[in-house]
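=== RUN LOG ===
request id: a7f3
mode: sequence -> structure
chains: 1
length: 242
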Amino acid sequence: MGLPHAGSYSFQTEKEEWDSAVRGGCPEIESEDGKEVDIIAGVIRNVGGVWEFVEDSAHFGSSGLLSLTSNSFTVSVNFKKTYGKVISFLATPDETYVNNGVSCGSSVGVSSADITLFQNKSINDYITWNGSSWTTLRGDISVSSYNNGIITISHSMNMNGFNINASLRDSSGGGFVGFRIGSINSNSAVLRLQKEDGTLYTGVEPAGLSFYVNRQSSGMLTKTESAIASSNIWIFGAMQKA
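=== RESULT ===
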């Protein structure tokens, strides 16, 4: 093979080709029906309840992404243009989020994507009536009210589900066998003391009553709860031009 004819030639490194493709809209990439495809990408972080693009000496920030807006549970990633169709969109939590039991899912349209974070949550505590007040071992769950055998417990962590267990300690007096579970809400639950004969207890706080409570759920994280230090969500999408 002979040498090329004299003329003007342009050579690009792989990085230059990638930068040109991403910033220029990937005109050399086409979907199977021949339409051009854009690559959109970036990394976002929740700082103190405010979502922002990560842009520093090690992170480019974003490409093809315009802005971030959010409500209590969802962060919306707004694209710089409106596309014809979505080919693929990935939102991936980093190792810090994963180590904290956080996952995420996306609802994607042609001009934006809504990302919601979820966490496998578990809280537990040991609660005792000491004769004058209710005490807790961990401080994660408290007794907000007591009324004739009806104990209302509460906690600050939002729980999305009805998985709750309450069990008496062996040393608890009064002839009780356990609890009947009443209403359950995201931040509270009602427990009713049950006696050995199967009836419900309706008296004052039983002396020495002690019990364990555990709640588990996989629920949505609020934007305050998802502000875990040094955690990111990586974004990558392929969008067909209109």
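=== NOTES ===
The longest helix spans residues 14-24.
Residues 14-119+225-240 form one domain.
=== END ===
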